[in-house]
């Protein structure tokens, strides 16, 4: 008996839940490996109650739910945090269910385990492949379900590209080195870099020691994507000229390169932590610290931008120190925000449940006093005060070196690397970074960042994190729900991150977010249901078409435009539409409404399609679905070399078939010889399939064209036999 039949019979026969006494049962699920699920915290909803799933650290893309001496649920499905309407819920049919618009079909886990336990290799675990493409490629008696783990993997890491502007204190007056008694690498008399008076440069540095807010304007220009110095910011940067050099290539001041920041998946999202990172380019690999330009050479710089002039002075090594950990209580997760407690301490534009950190994080002693004053339970702030609270596997070094393995009185929790010393001989400090990406908004979105020195983050072109100044590693946090109160679920928003390491000897960067693994790809993005009330009332779906232009390099600021009026006059792309039964849009024989027809008449099929405003196409989806014969249909949107697809699944429902004449079925036709080298295609009635194709007997397309109202005459190359295709129907004709 087939397994599917056995399970179906069991579902009917089972009247009560079975109890797996003193037994462990595990459910392992491979969720869809796409942007929607990879940017969300997955949950399982069991008999009316939500439970978290645990990422399987040994099997990328898999999540686990463990049951110990529990009744197994009879109604369960998977969904993502923030999807309160269960729009993307996954049940028995996997991803294919919601892709075809079906209501989620709950999973009877109790029945499934009961039936699969008779399998020879069953060992207490079931494996569910919810990813539609992966499941389709795997053999299974019961689609998507297995007693042995299929050999598939998902995405557990991604790269965020950032532009690095590398300079040095000898080249730019806003950069310096901490040293006892003064700034160790900035002129103390005469002139500083670029001829700035030394006293003026030193004052600007000291005026902005510690977290210094308000240095940049709170709005980011959506076209230039560069922060602007505020009036108050001149106290730190002397003049707008010097500030603008931070994030713009300036010959003789900096050199640019592209650096890939690697993110890894965690239980709550995606993280990068420089404490655990080994930067490329070091002579001796050492863990910890964010120094992205250790691998710079003239060739690397020229490869990044052939038009720039390499600047070896920007790669000057300075004395450096490694990171230090926070105490155990500060590393513990905040119970509400689910991020380390230290990250919630400072208020900012995107967070108001912390404290005013302006002027804080200037030095260790003052910072410890500040943090303990706002939370009396904190017994340790920085790890040098509590080495016993070091995280698991935190390396210990011989004091004054980069050599791991120090013990006893010579063992310290951070490395030291001095210019001219052993190991790497210091680090290449003094650089700024600029990162541009997008994320798809979902309820519960959070963004956390910490590091030194200046950090400014803009979300939807509004300042969300403002921790400028020369400071120890300081935290910034954004409750995106509150920061963007009018954000639409699944809509696309920009995130722009600017940082500067302006003062040696340390450099750290940590980013944690449950938002999108931030997309830097060019292309088309679609947002549906722009008028939710209209959609619910009539089924008319208004789409928003956005286009991210490709600037031939992921580090280059990208511009995303969602209105044709926003495109530069000289760069207005053509937006075209194609309605077809071919998901690739490449088969002309499956075209139902061509690009040319949409261009000539943007209102098609009795107003079912209205692309008069190509950036806001309107589709009467309810009418469309009811009018189509069963099958899959695709509206393909093209801009430049990119394309995006809207899919429509027409159901096989007798009531609909009886009620309407399916438009695509009206492609019934006849074909006959009408001349020496001519055939005539006659359609029985007006046809949705307005185009034809003539093929040889090997399927090679010889010609395509547009059908006339009734009779269409077509020339053929020679006498012989041909296949004529109209819509999904084909007929053979002999020309003798």
TrEMBL record:
Q: Which InterPro entries does the record associate with it?
A: Fibro_Slime, PA14/GLEYA, Prespore-cell_inducing_factor
Recite the UniProt keywords alphabetically. Answer: Signal
Q: Which domain of life is it from?
A: Bacteria
- Organism of origin is Fibrobacter succinogenes
Name under which the protein is recorded:
Fibro-slime domain-containing protein
User: Which is a Gene Ontology cellular component entry for this protein?
Assistant: extracellular region
Per UniProt, residues of the PA14 domain are 387-528
Q: Which residues form the signal peptide?
A: 1-21
